[in-house]
Amino acid sequence: RKEVEQDPGPFNVPEGATVAFNCTYSNSASQSFFWYRQDCRKEPKLLMSVYSSGNEDGRFTAQLNRASQYISLLIRDSKLSDSATYLCVVIPYDKVIFGPGTSLSVIP
Amino acid sequence: SAVISQKPSRDICQRGTSLTIQCQVDSQVTMMFWYRQQPGQSLTLIATANQGSEATYESGFVIDKFPISRPNLTFSTLTVSNMSPEDSSIYLCSVGGQLEAFFGQGTRLTVV
User: Fold this and answer.
1) Mind listing the pLDDT tens digit for each residue in B51-63?
2) Cα–Cα distance between A8 and A37 in angstroms, integer?
3) Does residue B112 belong to the interface with chain A, where contact is any CB pair within 8 Å?
């Protein structure tokens, strides 16, 4: 089993739609969780951290379920500029593990 | 936060040759990470580079193929040795840990 798994995608959604990405991780000792965004031909950039209590940043909401070892990202009112690959990131100890990524295309 | 300068940004190399990628960080960091991102794939950790000791390699990666140097707390190099077309990829260095990971701009390598 891979350390971090994500929805395979790609997700093609119309502008204004709500889209949710899921991610599972295998190491129960993982301490930190993030969603990163990677635009084509660019390095990954931090989108948001994920906390046990859940957190929201504008149109983006992240949730963590430690019991199920599951992380989610919800994007509301999708914009064309949201088109990118979204990477689930898990940090067990001092190693940063990336999920395979989910590709999102927002269509006019 | 950390700012990482990575070079070269891209290169086209002949098979059988070697390329050394450099990363310079604007602050002292204990660990630096080297990743490979093959076309259409996510980031795969190659190795963790600690200052003053040998790098720790992940399964599937060996020192002879990807030698790493870490001469001080702000600098590291990754060499891709005896290259083949299968080594064509983006290579990224990274620093960080519990709170966030920061990345160099990446080196886009094409082996012909």
Assistant:
1) 888 899 999 999 9
2) 15
3) no
